[in-house]
Amino acid sequence: MAGPASDYHRGDMDIAEQVSTFHLVMGITKWGSLVLAALLLLLVVWFCTQAGFIAALISGLAVAVLGTLLLRGGGGH
Fold first, then answer.
1. Which residues does the chain have with pLDDT short of 70?
2. Which of 14, 21, 55, 68 has the fewest CB atoms within 10 Å, measured from its CB?
3. Residue 68: which residues within 8 A CB-CB, separation 6 or more?
4. DSSP code string of 30-71
5. Is 8 helix (H, G, I), strand (E, B) or coil?
6. Can you tell me the distance from the alpha carbon of 5 to that of 20, in angstroms, rounded to the nearest whole number?
7. DSSP classification of residue 5
């Protein structure tokens, strides 16, 4: 018995919208993770050590700058 006929033909659909949505979600995940990591480091160093605000700000900015350089660097995706 053959299955029901369908208009779907494998490989013929335009997937541009799915690709752009995937890239949007991956970008939000990537950059959002960097922002959260830098903010978390700033708050932990500021409130949980004796280093103070200036050291926390410097360490948070260092993570943000290094993360930006590494995430912009490419990769294959």
1. 1-3, 74-77
2. 14
3. 34
4. HHHHHHHHHHHHHHHHHHHSSS-HHHHHHHHHHHHHHHHHHH
5. coil
6. 31
7. P
